[in-house]
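Q: For a teaching handout, I want to show students what a protein-ligand complex looks like in token form. Below are the inputs, and the small molecule is iron/sulfur cluster. Please produce the holo structure.
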Amino acid sequence: MAQPTVMEKLEILSDAAKYDASCASSSTTKRNSLKGGIGSTTGSGICHSYAPDGRCISLLKILLTNYCSYDCVFCINRSSSNVRRARFTVEEVVDLTLSFYKRNYIEGLFLSSGIIRSPDYTMAELVRVAQTLREVHGFRGYIHLKLIPSANADLVAQAGLYADRVSINVELPSEVSLKRFAPEKQPREISAAMGGLKLRIEEGKAERAKSRRAPAFSPAGQSTQMIVGADGASDAAILQRSAQLYGSFGLRRVYYSAFSPIPDSSAQLPLAEPPLMREHRLYQADWLTRFYGFEVGEILDDGVGGMLDLAIDPKLAWALRHRARFPVDVNRADRETLLRVPGLGTKSVGKILETRRFRRLRLEDVGKIARSMTTLRHFIVAEGWRPGAVLDSERLKQHLAPRPQQLALL
Ligand code: SF4
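A: Here is the structure, written as tokens, with iron/sulfur cluster included.
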């Protein structure tokens, strides 16, 4: 059988990588230099992600190979899967990255891999890509490397020296599910590897604080991914697990990836994917715990099976369950209280606090600060404004719930 060309490999291995959510979105067709201008976002394997400074960047998102000796039930690349296989050489990945980078198609590389021969062999190949890019070609673009938890600690340490960000997937919210769906993966190894990364990242930061010449170790930190909807875990269980991961390992992000049914899948897996809105609500809830002062237990204190309301966002759902705390006076409330008001984000709260040092805010003033007043107006008091009895209305949720929308899949 003819060997696939590099472009055919790119098609196979970028498609195989799209199930990893650690990169924020998949291919787009918005810009193409063939029609003039410089740079392109078209073609296989280009996704968008966010750099540590908040910039949206384009990444070449691929697997080194989709051959894998493991048989994780939920994974399209598992050993028993009947997919087309391909494998890049290290040099091919380096050449592709440089070629796309020089043409301004991408600003970096997201590289993962199935496990071939052994975890150490695979990890060494991944490291060799990053090392060649950095040391041989002086590549200054962004590199995100997926790590293999059971790989030798020295290899992991090298990966952190070349990559901007590293990640290890916990895959599923509980050890029980991991053992059931990914029997070759060891929860203890995953935790130990993440703990080791945390220490190295902290040491790297401390060294850099002493001397700017000290090498940076994964300066954009570490992240992980959890698959949602493959096992029976509730949103409460998922968010509790995330809170534990953030707390124990100092993760920058936990990514949630809605399980998508795969061909010839195991009977253990559900036949249908969960609603994509579930993934979206989990991200919103995750955000509330990290930036808005909410505890997971508060977000899911409605006693309905630990699942987030799909119809409305979790902050609005919480506010509707705690109406006695509203309306909040934007001219008097402290930051923590303002952050809990539906429709106010962290930036709006900062601007409200800043502006009210000089004058009392009217509803129109808040309208100039907040993105939308549709929901917000019902939950605040401002100079000359009170929301009236509408806050007590049984129909308020119905009134504020957005119309159902189809979310794009991958
Ligand atoms: S080790 Fe990774 S690539 Fe291999 S089957 Fe498991 S999830 Fe898929």
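A: Two things your students might notice: The pocket of iron/sulfur cluster is lined by residues 68, 70, 72, 75, 77-78, 114-115, 182 (CB under 6 Å). Residues 187-210 form the longest helix (24 residues).
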